[in-house]
Specification:
283 residues, mainly alpha, 13 helices
């Protein structure tokens, strides 16, 4: 019995040691980036000791002042916020409407249409950048906010339909029939009955979409050349020259760019977990 206890204790200690090592491996890069935002670039380049890189010699908020005030990084944050909110809102509204029609109504070729929407999710994004750029250019939307918002929204709609429609399939048909008997029209049923029931799915796709659009760099770099319209990822490129990279400002910009995503995640965390676990239970 003592031997069994010792074996279990040894296994537990080994498991905890492995978990701690994995946690340190994952957390250290983030701690290193945050620590370097309080250092000048020269101090970052000369530090060789791993522990010393986490301890600034003379901590300062200068990098944050330079990034936000001198480089006007707040403008890029606002641009990304605008692009993200508008494109995600369009995708959510359109995706919910399509999901509602596909889930609760019968019409010819319904399954074919739904399948065609889902197939578009399998197309790699870089593979459609050239035709997408040509269409945007033909519409005269280069260096225009709509030139990013519309392509972003269309890319997000299929995933929205795929997730939300599966949640709607679990809503009892009797509930919808009862709403019809009570005099609810189809749009009242959608926005006041169905949408509240699929909030976990909406929260889940929202955080996925926000992360995707917020971190997008390639399409904005092709469509937008005016600095005043650049999103945050394009703004980060200002800290990199042809022969020199200001690591302190780049890392500070990365921290500033990450904060909004963390805030949104913590706000929607409960719904996201519910959405993922509910989807797992249905599967």
């Amino acid at each position: 019995m003592v031997r069994s206890y010792m074996n279990n204790k040894t296994k537990s200690m080994s498991l905890h040691t492995i978990l701690i090592a994995v946690a340190v491996t994952c957390i250290y890069p983030f701690a290193w980036i945050i620590a370097n935002t309080f250092k000048p670039n020269s101090e970052i380049l000369k530090n060789e000791n791993l522990l010393a890189t986490l301890i600034p010699n003379h901590p300062s908020w200068t990098n944050y002042y330079k990034v936000i005030v001198e480089f006007g990084f707040s403008r890029y944050v606002w641009n990304s916020f605008f692009y993200t909110v508008t494109s995600v809102s369009i995708a959510i509204v359109v995706g919910i409407s399509i999901s509602y029609v596909v889930a609760f109504y019968r019409f010819p070729l319904k399954n074919l249409i739904f399948g065609a929407i889902i197939v578009t999710m399998m197309i790699p994004m870089p593979g459609i950048f050239i035709p997408k750029y040509i269409v945007i250019a033909e519409l005269g939307l280069l260096n225009n906010r709509l030139g990013l918002i519309l392509p972003f929204a269309t890319v997000l709609i299929p995933l929205t339909v795929f997730i939300v429609k599966n949640f709607m399939d679990s809503i009892p048909k009797e509930m919808m029939e009862a709403a019809t008997v009570d005099g609810c029209n189809k749009w009242t049923k959608l926005w006041f009955i169905v949408v509240p029931l699929v909030r976990p799915a909406i929260a889940t796709v929202t955080i996925f979409h926000v992360r995707s659009i917020w971190n997008e760099w390639l399409l904005p770099s092709l469509v937008i050349t005016e600095k005043a319209l650049h999103p945050i990822q394009s703004g980060l490129m200002r800290f990199q020259g042809e022969h020199f990279i200001d690591y302190s400002l780049t890392m500070t910009g990365l921290v500033v760019a990450t904060i909004p995503l963390l805030v949104i995640f913590f706000i929607l965390q409960k719904h996201i977990i519910n959405g993922i676990t509910s989807g797992a239970l249905k599967g």
